[in-house]
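Many introductory courses stop at the sequence. We go one step further.
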Amino acid sequence: MKAFDIALKDLTRSFRSAFAIVFMFGVPLLVTGLFYVMFGNIASEGGFSLPKTKVVIANLDEGGPKFQVNPKNIPGGKKAETMGELVVSILQSEEMADLIEVALTDSAESARSAVDSQAAQVAIIIPADFSHQFADVDEEAFIEFYQDPTLTIGPAIIKAVLNRFLDGMSGVKIAVTVFLDEADESQRGLAGQVAQQYLKISLAENEDMEDELLETRNPSGGAQRKEEETQSLLLSIVGPIMGGMMVFYAFFTGASTAQSILREEEERTLPRLFTTPTPQAVILTGKLFSVFLTVCVQVVVLILAARFIFGIQWGEPKSASMMAAGIIFTASSFGIFINSFLKNTKQGGVLFGGVLTVTGMMGMIKIFAMNSPAAQTMGDAVSLLVPQGWAVRGLTQSMSGESPESIFLTLLVSLAWSAVFFVVGVWKFNRRYA
């Protein structure tokens, strides 16, 4: 009971410091809030704002097999009668209007000149035999894509749209080619006629080709789902950042609270406590217990604050509890361990500016590299060399919905780190005040 009273007294003393409150709660939430606002503004605007890419199209296609598509996305309701007109109608559709500004020209030379003079960023040149070549199973159809070499994003979007269109249409052609390859020589002439007719029919029946390629409208309730998806994407970015800040500053709190033992030694309050009837072991136990209580309060408050302020999901209650326990025990015991090697508080600058900063950054490599699979693989190996890395591992496992069994294994490793740190730290403190 005496040990608990001492721990409660030190806990109260810690939370009377405005600096400690800001450091434990304000800074992690502020950093997360900055990221939340930054990415939230992007999400509310519907994504990153890209300037329109100016595209000049020279449609020289003279036609081949006649076919028609749904004219609702074609300006003026005109039906496309060639493959070239179909490509033009796709790029002029309403769905592409926010990304592409289309201009038409009658010659390939003028299209290229527009790009060379920087009047446009991309020139698309559809050759005269495009429809004919596409309909011929023995030929290959090409579209010339001419772009400003200094640009990347805009041309890449347009190229992706064209590639998707051509890949989809090539599926029909591949099926026809396989059919011809499997036909007997005596049946090849008849097979060719059937294949050509099949190609025409397939093109004619694909009336919703543009919709399948570019449809971005949402059905009833789609706007709400889109908002939910945007919020989910935002939290997938901000959540790990908040978790990383919590781990990082929990270790600082553990070290700072444990340093109160050295501070009281320098202020001569600790030696006076040792002269009281209370056993020395009980006093040290209370001091060390206060470290765990302080970090526990910090982690629990940050988890709840992040949940209610930012809507961050930490995982299932069981998984989140194991994750929190791993952070609390590891951060507290590491603070006790590292302070046991210090002679006085003046050496704390090395502790906070060196050891905790370096190990904390190593432990959070996985969070910094969350968009790079290769860097994440390397980060896993590096971060698990320090206790912060195991705390972050449990955090990401819980947030990604992994099974409690997987998180329990991570917790066991964290507890093993904690046991070693605690035993060594207590042993050195006992020797120091023996």
